[in-house]
Write a structure and sequence with these properties.
- By secondary structure, the chain is mainly alpha-helical.
- It has two domains: 24-152, no CATH class; 160-265, no CATH class.
- The chain is built from eleven helices and seven strands.
- It has helices at 7-20, 33-42, 46-60, 73-76, 88-95, 97-107, 125-130, 141-159, 194-205, 207-210, 256-267, and strands at 170-172, 184-186, 214-217, 229-230, 236-242, 250-251, 254-255.
- The chain has a three-stranded antiparallel sheet with strand order 4-3-5, with no helix packed on it.
- α9 (194-205) crosses α11 (256-267).
- The N and C termini lie far apart (57 Å).
């Protein structure tokens, strides 16, 4: 007996089969699943995918931070993506060299080489350009993830010179003991990978500020016992380097430790992604 299936019935069957397929990276917001797959499966860096998602979640709540997607109809034609509507000021500045130059002259008295951060991960276009990412792509999920991943991997490799990958970061302790080990304690919100903590910190504070060898201060330096200094400083006791140290800087209401804490806590949301780095 010949059984015939109409085209509409076939489509229905195929649709049902697709619906039964498990969603890949279901714990990740839909727009960010392709970027996650690239980092996990192509670059073999699933742990870093969690960091990237943690940073984008922290910086823009995946593009929802600036309001709803339903912007005014008359202005939508100006912007290339739904996410640009949430950062029109930064987009307009970075897309106009003349306006950007004027803004830099105004802001340069307060911030050296000022340029507005933009996009889903709040990165400046000049940094994204280092990795071949056009500033417009920072407004798209894949572009923002690629730029953030490239930045973090570069600084993770730098951080490994000073911090271990299998131990947590340490911070200053007020212990009464005199040895260097007792004067430093594990950072409560470490990812468990001190080099990774430092690369996350670099996203907030900048790599040149945090990625370096830190030392205990000289006893006659006149510094607080809770302060660690760059080993290149004249006030540093170069015989007492502090391995895995996570420095803490404050900008407005945000601290470096607070930033690493926020990102490391957000990383725990992505239970559908296993941990791991390239071999």
């Amino acid at each position: 007996m010949e059984i015939k299936i109409t085209e509409s019935q076939l489509k229905h069957i195929l649709s049902e089969q697709e619906d039964k397929q498990p969603i890949k990276y279901a714990c990740v917001p839909e727009d960010f699943r392709v970027g996650t797959e690239q980092i996990v499966e192509y670059w073999k860096a699933p742990t870093m995918a969690k960091v990237v998602l943690g940073i984008i979640g922290r910086e823009s709540n995946f593009g929802k931070l600036w309001g709803t997607e339903n912007g005014p109809e008359w202005i939508k034609w100006m912007f290339p993506t739904k996410y640009t509507l949430k950062t029109p000021f930064e987009y307009i500045l970075n897309s106009s060299p003349w306006l950007l130059d004027k803004a830099k002259k105004i802001m340069s008295s307060e911030v050296d080489n000022w340029q507005p951060s933009m996009g889903l991960s709040q990165m400046t276009p000049d940094v994204a350009a280092k990795y071949g990412i056009p500033y417009e792509d920072l407004l798209e999920a894949n572009g923002a993830m690629s730029a953030t991943f490239a930045y973090l991997m570069e600084n993770y490799q730098k951080a490994r010179k000073y911090n271990d990958t299998d131990k947590p970061s340490v911070v200053a302790s007020s212990s009464s003991k005199s040895d260097t080990t007792s004067k430093n304690k594990d950072f409560e919100y470490s990812t468990g990978n001190a080099a990774l903590d430092l690369s996350i910190a670099s996203y907030n504070a900048g790599p040149t500020k945090v990625i370096k060898q830190w030392c205990m201060p000289k006893k006659d330096a006149g510094l607080s016992e809770l302060l660690r200094v760059s080993c290149s400083s004249k006030k540093a006791n170069k015989d007492e380097p502090v391995r895995n140290y996570l420095p803490n800087f404050k900008q407005d209401q945000l601290t470096t430790h607070g930033y690493v804490r926020e990102v490391s806590q957000r990383m725990k949301d992505y239970t559908c992604i296993k941990d791991g780095f390239p071999g």
